[in-house]
Amino acid sequence: MISLLIDTSNRPLSVAINKDGYCQAEINTTVKKTHSATLMVYINELFKMTGCKREDIDRIIVARGPGSYTGVRIGVTIAKTLAHALNIPLYSVSSLAVIAASSGREGIMAPMFDGRRGNVYTAIYQLEGSTLEEVMDEGYMELETVLDSLKAHDGGVVLADAGEKFSSGLETFTHAVPRISSVEKFTSILRQEDVHQMVPEYLKVSEAEKNWMERTQS
């Protein structure tokens, strides 16, 4: 089983080719470059490094969000296009679960992305061995809400990208960025998608969508 894995949810970009769940090659960046300009370049580089051809890929796994509206859309669109063109299965994974799987630690953790206006996108996970379980549903919420929930779990940590500015004033956290190659061993967090019906999961409508809905309902 050869998988192509893609995560462009936020500032970091992570792409990988796995064989039977183990990483063959991966490219992870945290530089400020446009994902639309670099993603296919990096994917082609993975093919060169591994010697794989597109027709060798058995399935695609993509981070479905939450995250940057533009970033998530780029990854999902390219994943859907490739899955359709190659006629192979498409799977998705929460972008928050990618951070938890990439953290290299076990126990309780709350990966977070900035949600602006003092809010965050987050969930609480428990990782034990090869099991990654969501113990608090992902959502868009105030930082204090999730911190209060973490207090019920001794040793629970916040995972965040040190390069991301948080409007909520997040101060204490463990630095973590996505390595999409890490998710495949956690089969419970992978969801098979209909390549034609799959849409990103933003957890919150964009300001443009909100304004449009307000105008059309008035």
Molecular structure report:
The structure is a single chain. The chain is of the alpha/beta class. It folds into 2 domains: 121 residues, Nucleotidyltransferase, domain 5 (2-Layer Sandwich); 80 residues, Nucleotidyltransferase, domain 5 (2-Layer Sandwich). Helices cover 28% and strands 33% of the residues. Strands 3-2-1-4-5-11 form a 6-stranded mixed β-sheet. It has a 5-stranded mixed β-sheet with strand order 8-7-6-9-10, with helices on both faces. Helix 1 crosses helix 2. One of its GO terms (biological process) is tRNA threonylcarbamoyladenosine modification. GO terms for molecular function: tRNA N(6)-L-threonylcarbamoyladenine synthase activity.
Topology:
Layout: E1 2-7, E2 13-19, E3 22-29, H1 35-50, E4 59-63, H2 69-86, E5 90-93, H3 95-102, E6 107-116, E7 119-128, E8 131-142, H4 143-150, E9 157-160, E10 174-175, E11 191-193, H5 207-217
Parallel strand pairs: 1-4, 4-5, 6-9, 9-10
Antiparallel strand pairs: 1-2, 2-3, 5-11, 6-7, 7-8
DSSP helical segment count? 5
Biggest β-sheet strands, sense, barrel: 6 strands, mixed
What is the N-to-C order of secondary-structure elements (H for helix, E for strand)? EEEHEHEHEEEHEEEH
CATH class of the largest domain: Alpha Beta
- Proper CATH architecture of the largest domain: 2-Layer Sandwich
What's the multimeric state?
single chain
Look at the structure and give the mean pLDDT.
Answer: 92
